[in-house]
Amino acid sequence: MDIVDSQNRSVIRESGNAYPQSRRELFGLAAGGLTVLGSGLIGSAVFGATPTETMTIGPFYPMQRPLDQDSDLTVVNGIATHAKGQIVDLSGRVLKPDGTPAAGARIEIWQANAAGRYAHPADMSGVALDPGFQGFGVQLADAEGRYRFRTVKPGAYRIPDGRVRTPHVHFDVQGRTSRIVSQMFIPDEPLNASDFLLKVSEAPETLIARRLPPPPRAPDMLALQWDIILVDG
Ligand SMILES: [Fe+2]
Question: Which of helix, strand or coil describes residue 37?
Fold first, then answer.
C-alpha cells in the first residue's frame, strides 16, 4: 500500500528508504506535504498559533494494521506476555490554531519496539520483534481534545544508510478539515542532538514532549505530554 502526497509522490513505500537524503529533499517533501498541508500557513497567519511542524511519515507506517489497535500498546490480545521496555504514559491534547479543542480528532501512533524494531517488512535490521508489543494504536480525542496512550519507550534504530534515529513516536492526526503527520521526541535523549530529522526542524523544541512526574505507584514509568496543533481543525 502506498500513500501519496499532494504531488502524487509516494510517502510510504513497501520497501527501501523513504527518508529524505538531503536537507533540500526534506524541505521539498515538507513543502509539498500531504494534501491537507497546503492551507497550513494560511491557518497559522489568520489565527496566530503555529500548527505542529510536519515530518516525513517515514518507511514504517503499518502496511497491515494489527487486529488489536487500541490505546494500550503494551498488551496484545491473545498474547500472554506484555511488551518489553519502559512503560510510557503518553498524553496530550489536539487543538485548533485558536486554542480550542479539536474534539473527535483521530490520532494514530506507530513506533519501534523497545529494541528499535518496527513490525514492518521494510525493517531489515534483524533486531527481534516483540510479540507482546502492539506497535500501532488509534483513538479519538475527547471533547476537550485529549488523547492518551500507554506504550513503551521506543528504541533508537539505524537506517540502511547507517544514520541513527533517536527514539521517537510517529503521529498521524486527522481533524475534521486538516491533518498533521509528524514525530514526537523524548526529552533529554542524548541522540536528539544528532538526529538528522530533528536537526533540520524549524522548531525542534515543539516536537519534544514534556516530561511529567511519574505516578507515585509507578516511579519507573515515563510520563510524557505532547500537544498537537492542527492546521484548521
Ligand atoms: Fe521512525
Answer: helix
Q: How far is the CA of 97 from the centre of ligand 1 (A)?
A: 26
* DSSP notation for 75-144: --TT-SSPPPS-EEEEEEEEE-TTS-B-TT-EEEEE---TTS--SSTT--S-PPP-TT---EEEEE--TT
Active site residue 118: yes
pLDDT score of 163 more than 70? yes
113-146 tens-digit pLDDT: 999 999 999 999 999 999 999 999 999 999 999 9
Question: Is there a catalytic annotation at residue 19?
Answer: no
Cβ-contact 88, 224 below 8 angstroms: yes
Domain boundaries of the chain, sorted by first residue: 23-229
Query: Against a cut of 0.85, is the pTM above it?
Result: no
**23-229 CATH, one of 1.10.3720.10, 3.30.1330.10, 2.60.130.10, 2.60.40.10:** 2.60.130.10
165 labelled catalytic: yes
Find the catalytic residue in 118, 147, 150, 179: 118
Question: Three cell numbers at 34?
Answer: 500531504
Known catalytic membership, residue 147: no
Known catalytic residue at 82: no
